[in-house]
Amino acid sequence: MDAMAQGALEFDEESGSAGSADSTLTVSQLIDEINGSLSDRFGRGVWVSGEIKGFRPSPGKHLYFDLVEERNGQRAVISVAFFLGVQTRLKPKLSRANLELADGVKVRIFGSLDMYAPTGRVSFKMNDLDPRFTLGDLAAQREEVIRRLQATGRFTDNQDTYFPPVPLNVGLITSVGSAAYNDFVKHLDTAGIGFRVVELDARMQGEECPGMVSAGIALFGARTDIDVVVVIRGGGSKNDLAWFDSEQIALAIMDCPLPVLTGIGHEIDRHISDDVAYESFKTPTAVADRIIEQVLEFQDNAESTWDAITARVNAVVDAGSNQLDGIAHRIATATRAVVERSDERLRGSARRLTPLAASVVGQALTRTGTAQQRLALAARTHLRRSSVLLDAAENHVRLLDPVHTLARGWSITRTASGTVVRSVADVSRGEELVTTVTDGTIRSTAKDANP
């Protein structure tokens, strides 16, 4: 650095011309001097922290991005060179921490400074990074968002919404065509229930993610033809999934009048969106299972209620029949007893009152006729009352007759032995089935039975 030590150019006071040519550096010499000074000052490298900007992944190539610090309205930027060899060496460290470098990620990186002669730019050659710094920053941001949301007093508002017993209309927010989307939709299809899925394609990571997801939740929440809102995506790095710690998404879920189900990331991941949602699940398939189980539970309850109604009707009919049989038997017995007693009295009177037999017999016959008329009248009255009761029971039974339910579109499927089919477990492949509809029966053979 002898030339640099000479300081500024010296001028001849008399001639005004520049000093010796030996004091002048060429551009390359100046860059060498600068790099030498940087090496002397930062020869062992230095740790620098900041936020990544302008990151453009390019597999198999050197990467370049800016490390930015914004403080008190001032912006400081340094260019970073992330060479391919260093990428390969640091890949396991990033993988263990489940991190990926991307725009907006705050990092603490180690490297050295260098001025690149062809461009004259000073850049930071990255050689290492500290994953704990990034993870700590993500955790700190998450805790701060949770604190602000809890301060609103509405943190669990969505968990208090009404979950319908038959959620057939699903508002789905995800990246349409992704693995998460296909898993969810195919799983609903296999249930054979007839769900209606309204899709909204959204970015599930990156700076556009919070705005698109929150807007989708608000859109579905304002509709009257949606029963439940579902937000799903597959796994990813921690900083990719950290977008679902967004305060904007959490507020949209808290404000939504419909229950919101989330399925974001892997088994070990949990996000603020999960905390404020009605329910959260580890995978998109698990979300689909929850919706299917809700519908099947309602179906089972409906069938159990129908079975109870049928049993009650049968019991009422049997009780009415037994009651009528008992009344008829008692009337017949009473009539025979009265007639027998009357006959006995007539025979005794005839024996005791031989002189007045004709008169007594006439009077007895008269009384007997009157008694028979009263008994017949009483019997008819009782029978009419019993007939009214039986007609009422018959009308009640007719209203509950499964034929009327079949006329409304229901059907009853039985096995060849007459057992009602309530589950796929009741049917074997190739088994003959008989389905009763309102105007007849349909015979079929089970090709397959999938739970």
Secondary structure layout plus pairing:
Elements (H helix, E strand, L loop, with lengths): L1 H4 L21 H16 L3 E8 L9 E9 L2 E9 L1 H13 L9 E11 L4 E9 L1 H21 L17 E6 L4 H12 L5 E6 L7 H13 L6 E6 L4 H4 L5 H9 L4 E5 L7 H5 L2 E3 L2 H69 L4 H43 L2 H6 L4 E4 L16 E6 L2 E6 L6
Parallel strand pairs: 3-5, 6-7, 6-8, 8-9, 9-10
Antiparallel strand pairs: 1-2, 1-4, 2-3, 4-5, 11-12, 12-13
Helix pairs in contact: 5-10, 6-8, 10-11
General description of the model:
The chain has a five-stranded mixed beta barrel with strand order 1-2-3-5-4. The longest helix is centred in the last third of the chain and has 69 residues, at 284-352. 48% of the residues lie in helices and 20% in strands. The protein has four domains: 2-131, Nucleic acid-binding proteins (OB fold (Dihydrolipoamide Acetyltransferase, E2P), Beta Barrel); 140-282, Rossmann fold (3-Layer(aba) Sandwich); 298-396; 401-451, no CATH class. It is rod-shaped. It has 451 residues and is of the alpha/beta class. The protein is built from twelve helices and 13 strands. The model is unreliable at 1-17 (pLDDT under 50).
